[in-house]
Amino acid sequence: MDRAAYDRYLACFNARDYDAVLAHYADEFVLEFGGLRFTRKQQVKDFYAFLHSYLDESITVQAFVSDGAMVALEGIVRIEGRVELTAEALANAGYVGLFPLPAGAVLHIPQYIHYHLREGQIVRAGCALV
Q: What are phi and psi of 22, to 5 degrees?
């Protein structure tokens, strides 16, 4: 996945086009971040539908490296609370590894995001806070 292809993928993520995002994933994959682990596309769609009902999220790439088998990047994840996301709501949804966010709060979170690819599709992805 070169930078142009990644930018198309990221545009889908930033637009909340979950089907287009997940089209970049292999049928068998692992996505891990924030203590969460997803292995099915419906899990990912359900998670982001839940999360984005509370907040706006976008990613800006600051550094990008790819060799065809891997993509590694440094980015800033911008999160803005639209509706208060409470610890109770997170716990009820099963996302206890995440933090509550009040409405109106804006966070800029530096992250390392790493993808492993097979035949051009993502088979493993993970994020780490900087």
A: -70, -15
Q: Which CATH class is domain 3-129?
A: alpha beta
Give 16-69 pLDDT, tens digit per residue: 999 999 999 999 999 999 889 999 999 999 999 999 999 999 999 999 999 989
Tell me the C-alpha distance between 92 and 72, whole Å. Answer: 33
pTM metric for this prediction:
0.91
Beta carbons of 58 and 15 less than 8 angstroms apart: no
Rounded to whole angstroms, the Cα distance separating 97 from 44 reads 15
Do 123 and 30 meet the contact criterion of CB atoms below 8 Å apart? yes
Structure tokens at 16: 């909340």
- What ranges do the domains of the chain cover? 3-129
Instruction: Kindly write down the DSSP assignment for every residue of 22-91, as one continuous string.
Output: HTTEEEEEEEEETTEEE-SHHHHHHHHHHHTTTEEEEEEEEEEEE-SSEEEEEEEEEEEESS-B-HHHHH
